[in-house]
Amino acid sequence: MAELRNNYDLTLAAWAQVLEYRDRETVGHSRRLVDLSTRLGRALGLSEEQIVNLQRGAIVHDIGKLAIPDDILLKNNVLTEDERRLIRRHPQYASQMLAGIPFLKPALEVAHSHHERWDGSGYPEALKQEQIPLLARVFAVVDTWDALNSERVYRPRWSEDESRKYIKENAGILYDPHIVEVFLSIV
Fold first, then answer.
1. Which of 57, 63, 94, 149 is the most exposed place for a label (fewest CB within 10 A)?
2. Burial state string for 50-78 with b = 16 or more CB within 10 A and e = fewer than 16
3. Is the pLDDT confidence value at 10 over 80?
4. Which of 68-72, 105-109, 173-177 is predicted most confidently?
5. Which positions ≥6 away from 90 have C-beta within 8 Å?
6. Model confidence pTM above 0.85
7. 148 near 158, Cβ under 8 Å?
8. Residue 94's closest CA among 28, 40, 9, 16?
9. CATH, domain range 2-186
10. Which residues pair with 152 in a beta bridge?
């Protein structure tokens, strides 16, 4: 059974690599997210099972972007409203792609809900506070941190101080305030 789970995890890592080959902006993104999610999960006192599911969620969180056409996903300028709507469907695409894989069900919460926000302003379902699955709330902070600290076509990389300030200012607005407090103590 352990060998089978290991093979599943290797397959997940290969999927993440495919997405990174497609979108050069995200090279190394999944690995950084797995590492930081693990650190945060441990600092929050999550169980080992929760941490494994968080790691798997980190690996597959953007798998739904495989359903987004290259001319939109890789666009170097401002997206139209229709293009933005399509990009915002990637969590639903991920859910559809992974729904038939029972061992990924707990990790699917991360892929489906990582763009939900504490105040209900997120997507795809506008969930708020504890309606958002715990692992998705944890991951949302980590994903934002990595995005802010990475160079993008449309903006330069933020400094760690700028990123810390942004995340702290949005505790209780975009992010679970307890998770932010713990996160800022480990970065």
1. 149
2. bbbbbbbbbbbbbbbbbebeeeebeeeee
3. no
4. 173-177
5. 62, 64, 65, 67, 68
6. yes
7. yes
8. 16
9. 1.10.3210.10
10. 155
